[in-house]
Q: What sequence folds into this?
């Protein structure tokens, strides 16, 4: 990626676990000329052969002129691709004549020249090819990492991410500061749940980043990294990717170390940065984002388009950020899709699509996607509030809740739960969930029905697919309701399809 940027070419990537169709839906929009591909990967002790996926992808990308493949998993069995496309192993490419350091110069490009293309999750339609420019990303990443994250030359940064998430781009961007990024290839729980903390110990990591889902896994496994490993070099833990509860935040101070800066943030692939996050100059409140990031005019708007404090509203950005996309690749000259995505609600105001609350002291909460909102009795409920309660119920592994607006002003709000191994949903578990929701929030937070399912559908980066589930239950066909190529496991939707076809709980 760095080499691509240095010559003024445009970079885009897909994680190797994405199937050929999902990768083609993304990369095919760009008419690429060079493809770098790995032949497979190992995850959780298992080998995954991706050579057939590479062959299918090459046939899908008819603009390709060169394929460079990395025979990492099957070194003695080369990838065979379309004979019309020039192919070369990675080792052959880098063993050729190289330009010396004294001869090389980075290509000089305009401020908005495309740097890389990131893709939206594509859960409700074709993935958007979000194009960022050199200048905007440079300014934004330098500001974010230096001033909001307090990173310095020589720091050692780790964030557990796939190559398909914007946090990988964030990790690589730390090279701008002289920070040493640490990369991990594999399952974060293999060969044991403490493997990342052992790595952090050995590499003397100063900032450790992960998602709340990873914290939940550690908690259930009973891992106490502060007791098992030497984490004396660790200054900061960063959490991103989904809403962070107070309980999740407190876990770090109990199980890692007391002298720790917990940096909770929220951003987006759209801007490849954080809207909210941490600052070393303010106190930390459990579950709360310390502040809006420097230069980010983020507000919570009510239904009348007015900023509110202490209330949940729509997250909006009222002034431009340097790293807002320069375009969607392939959009028309009037940027119709771009404008419809961000500026359809309030002209000139960016709507991010998240529920947002600003506290009187300037802290913030991001409470889940606004298009997955639960609206009952006129009260809007962020799904994160319900999921926060479930974190304290050991029988519940995971859950997803949606709200269906029914004819005549009625509604139906089911919760689908995945229980711990060997458990069956019963009145005691339902009663515990109901009691806690009533006690910790309101009776409006209590679902109308609880249904046990074997899996909860998520994107490849772990976000729950509330909107596609809601659409399936409303009778939308699967191919219209969800982009299964963007899912961690498409079969997770099977139980929801069965329920939608056989239930009598609601009538649309």
A:
């Amino acid at each position: 990626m760095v080499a691509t940027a240095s010559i003024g070419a445009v970079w885009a990537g897909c994680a190797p676990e994405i199937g050929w169709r999902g990768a083609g839906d993304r990369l095919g929009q760009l008419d690429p000329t060079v493809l770098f591909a790995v032949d497979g990967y190992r995850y959780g002790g298992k080998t995954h052969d991706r050579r057939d996926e590479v062959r299918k992808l090459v046939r899908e990308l008819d603009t390709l002129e060169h394929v460079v493949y990395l025979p990492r998993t099957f070194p003695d069995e080369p990838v065979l691709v379309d004979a019309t496309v020039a192919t070369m192993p990675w080792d052959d490419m880098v063993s050729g004549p190289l330009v010396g350091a004294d001869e090389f110069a980075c290509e000089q490009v305009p401020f908005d020249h495309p740097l890389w293309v990131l893709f939206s999750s594509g859960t409700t339609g074709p993935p958007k090819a979000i194009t960022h420019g050199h200048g905007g990303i440079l300014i934004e990443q330098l500001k974010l990492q230096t001033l909001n994250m307090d990173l310095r030359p020589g720091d050692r940064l780790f964030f557990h991410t796939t190559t398909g998430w914007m946090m990988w781009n964030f990790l690589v961007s730390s090279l701008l500061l002289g920070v040493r990024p640490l990369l991990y290839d594999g399952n974060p729980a293999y060969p044991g749940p403490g493997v990342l903390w052992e790595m952090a110990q050995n590499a003397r990591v100063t900032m450790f980043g992960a998602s709340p889902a990873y914290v939940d896994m550690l908690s259930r496994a009973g891992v106490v990294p502060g007791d098992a490993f030497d984490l004396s070099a660790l200054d900061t833990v960063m959490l991103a990717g989904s809403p962070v509860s107070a309980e999740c935040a407190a876990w770090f101070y109990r199980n890692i170390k007391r002298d720790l800066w917990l940096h909770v943030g929220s951003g987006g692939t759209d801007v490849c940065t954080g809207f909210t996050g941490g600052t070393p100059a303010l106190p930390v409140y459990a579950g709360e984002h310390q502040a809006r990031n420097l230069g980010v005019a983020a507000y919570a708007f009510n239904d009348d388009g007015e900023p509110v404090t202490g209330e949940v509203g729509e997250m909006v950005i009222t002034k431009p950020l340097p790293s807002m996309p320069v375009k969607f690749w392939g959009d028309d000259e009037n940027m119709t899709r771009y404008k419809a995505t961000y500026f359809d609600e309030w002209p000139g105001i960016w709507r991010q699509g998240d529920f947002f609350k600003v506290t009187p002291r300037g802290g913030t909460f991001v409470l889940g996607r606004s298009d997955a909102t639960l609206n009952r009795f006129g009260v809007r409920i962020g799904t994160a509030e319900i999921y926060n309660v479930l974190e304290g119920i050991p029988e519940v592994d995971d859950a997803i809740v949606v709200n269906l607006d029914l004819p005549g002003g009625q509604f139906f709000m089911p919760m689908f739960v995945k229980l711990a191994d060997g458990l069956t949903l019963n009145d005691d578990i339902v009663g515990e969930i109901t009691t806690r929701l009533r006690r910790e929030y309101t009776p409006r937070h209590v679902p109308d029905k609880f249904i046990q399912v074997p899996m909860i559908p998520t994107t490849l980066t772990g976000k729950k697919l509330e909107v596609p589930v809601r659409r399936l239950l409303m009778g939308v066909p699967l191919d219209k309701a969800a982009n299964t190529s963007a899912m961690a496991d498409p079969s997770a939707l099977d139980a929801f399809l069965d329920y939608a076809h056989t239930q009598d709980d609601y009538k649309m």
